[in-house]
Amino acid sequence: MLLQPLKMSDKPGGGDGTSVLVETRTRTRRPPLYKVLLLNDDYTPMEFVVHVLERFFGMNHAQAFEIMLTVHKKGLAVVGVFSHEIAETKVGQVMDFARRHQHPLQCTMERED
Ligand code: TYC
């Protein structure tokens, strides 16, 4: 279809110099979440992993023991889901604590889909 120039009579106000304010809606996207993963290894003591889960992820002893066993058996487990900044902090705390105790425990983060 050919575009016809707007006739003054078709414009809002009919070309009388008045104007119309059009509201545009900006969609706000919620920030992505990140899974914090704990990885299994052959050397880190089970009790140390349980302690890490209690200390940095606020788990009680039973929850911590259960998740530790899941990591031990399956190779890894999600230990929490956080904003990017909180996830980075948790990973840093775990990696630092493990290194200071000379355990090879690995903790990483992954963006949720
Ligand atoms: N596999 C370790 C062991 O047998 C225990 C362990 C569990 C290590 C969980 C790391 O994230 C881990 N001592």
Write the layout of secondary structure elements.
Blueprint: E1 34-39, H1 46-57, H2 61-74, E2 76-82, H3 84-100, E3 106-111
Antiparallel strand pairs: 1-2, 1-3
Helix pairs in contact: 1-2
Bound molecules: L-tyrosinamide.
Averaged pLDDT: 90
Percentage beta strand: 15-25%
Protein structure class:
alpha+beta
Overall radius of gyration: 28 Å
Which percent bin holds the helix content?
25-40%
Overview of the molecule:
This protein has 113 residues and is an alpha+beta fold. It has three helices and three strands. Strands 2-1-3 form a three-stranded antiparallel sheet. Helix 1 crosses helix 2. The chain is elongated, with a radius of gyration of 28 Å. The chain starts with 33 loop residues before the first strand and ends with a strand. The model is unreliable at 1-9 (pLDDT under 50). Bound molecules: L-tyrosinamide.
